[in-house]
Amino acid sequence: MTRGRLALMGLLVVLTGAVTWITWPRADAEIRILPDGTARLRDADGERPLPDTVVITKRGWRLGDRRRITVVNTDDRDHTLAMLRVTAGERRAYEVPTGRFGGQCTAHPAAGALVLDIR
Amino acid sequence: MAMIGLGLRTLGIVALAAGLGACDRGLEGMVIDPPKAMPTFTFTRVDGSSFSTAPTAGQYTVLFFGYTNCPDVCPTTMADFTRVKSTLGEAASRVRFVFISVDPDRDTPQVAADYARKFDPAFIGVSADPLTTVSILQAYGIAATPDVSSDHAAHLVSHSSQVHLLDDQGRLIALYPYGSPWKTLAHDLAQLL
C-alpha cells in the first residue's frame, strides 16, 4: 500500500469517527431516580435535585429538532415523571418534541407534579 | 478509488442511521413505544346517555384535559382541534375529539358538553364526579391543582396541557405538548387514517 493510500484511509477513518461522534444520539438531559425514590437531574447546567419545572434545551449538534431525555431508574419500583414512565431498574431514552409537558411525578414526594419545558 | 467509494458508503450508512434515529415511525408527536393500553372510563351525559372512552373500531381518539374557565391553554388547544378537524376533511369522521374536565366542581356535564360544542358540534365534552375524575387523572398521569389563593368562582387550575392520541384499540400512541403546532397533530392523524 502506498503512503498516499494509507493517508487517505487514515483520513476516512478519522472522518467516519467524527461523523459518528457528532451524530451519536447523546442525551440533552439525564434524570436519575435514586433508590430512595427521589431524582436528580443532569444537564448542561450540571447536576442537582430534580426541580418542579425542568427546562430542557439542545446540547450540541444532531440531526432532527427533538430533545433526548434519558431516565435511569435505580429504585426498586416503577416511576412516572409526567409523560416519562420507567419500570424498576430500567434505563430508557425518550425523543421528545419541543413544547410543554406536565403531569404527576412519583419522584416528587412533596409536590407530586413535574413540568417539562422542552425548548 | 475503491477506497474512496468504501469510505463514502461508510459515511452514508452512518448518516442514514443517524437520520433514522431522528424520526419515529413517521409521527411527529412524542411516540409512546410500546403503545400503552389505557383504562376505559364512562361518563354520563346530560340527556342520560353515556359516553365511553372504550375503543371503537377504525376510530382514533384525541383527548385533552382542561377546564372551561381556563383563560388560555384550553381555548387555544380546542381552537387547534377545530383546525385539525377542518384539515382532515372527511377523514375527521374517524376521529373523536374529546375534552375531559379536570374541574368537576364547576364543570357540570352540561357545561363541559356546551364548551366543547362551542368549538365544533362534533366535539365531545365530558365531566365526571370528583372521585372518578381523580381516577382518570391518575390513569393518564395528569396533574391538576386549583389555585386556592383566588376566589372560588373564578379560580384558575394549573393542569397538564399535552394532548393524548389513542388508537382504535384504546392504546395511547402519541403525545403532543402544549406549544407544538396544530399541524403536527393534523399530520400524524393524516398519516394514521
Biggest sheet overview of chain B = 6 strands, mixed
Question: Which chains have the largest interface?
Answer: A-B, 35 and 38 residues
Strand and helix order of chain B: HEEEEHEHEHEEEEH
Number of strands of chain A: 10
Strand order of the largest sheet of chain A: 3-2-1-5-8
The proportion of strand residues of chain A reads 35-45%
- Which range best describes the helical content of chain B: under 10%, 10-25%, 25-40%, 40-55%, 55-70% or over 70%? 25-40%
State the separation between the terminal residues of chain B, measured CA to CA.
48 Å
Poorly predicted ranges of chain A:
none
Mean pLDDT across every amino acid position of chain A: 89
C-alpha Rg of chain B, in Å? Answer: 20 Å
Show the helix and strand layout.
The complex is a heterodimer of chains A (119) and B (193).
Chain A lengths: L2 H21 L5 E5 L5 E5 L2 E4 L3 E4 L10 E7 L5 E3 L2 E3 L4 E6 L2 E6 L8 E6 L1
Chain B lengths: L1 H20 L8 E8 L4 E3 L5 E3 L7 E7 L6 H16 L6 E7 L7 H11 L4 E3 L3 H11 L3 E3 L10 E3 L3 E4 L4 E6 L5 H11 L1
Helix pairs in contact in B: 2-5
Question: Overview of this structure, please?
Answer:
- The complex is a heterodimer of chains A (119) and B (193).
- Chain A has 119 residues and is an alpha+beta fold.
- Chain A has 1 helix and 10 strands.
- Chain A has one helix at 3-23, and strands at 29-33, 39-43, 46-49, 53-56, 67-73, 79-81, 84-86, 91-96, 99-104, 113-118.
- In chain A, the strands form 3 sheets. A 5-stranded mixed sheet of chain A has the order 3-2-1-5-8, with no helix packed on it.
- The longest helix of chain A is centred in the N-terminal third of the chain and has 21 residues, at 3-23.
- The radius of gyration of chain A is 19 Å and the shape is elongated.
- The model of chain A has no long low-confidence stretch (mean pLDDT 89).
- By secondary structure, chain B is α+β, with helices and mostly antiparallel strands.
- Chain B has 5 helices and 10 strands.
- In chain B, β2 and β3 form a beta hairpin.
- In chain B, α2 (73-88) runs parallel beside α5.
- The longest helix of chain B has 20 residues, at 2-21.
- Chain B is globular and about 70 Å long.
- Mean pLDDT of chain B is 88; it is low at 17-23.
- Classes of the chains: A alpha+beta (119), B alpha+beta (193).
- The A-B interface holds A 5, 8-9, 12, 15-16, 19-20, 23-25, 62-64, 66, 80, 82-83, 85, 94-105, 112-114, 118 and B 3-4, 6-7, 10-11, 14-15, 17-19, 21-24, 28-31, 36, 137-138, 140-143, 145, 159-162, 175-180, 184.
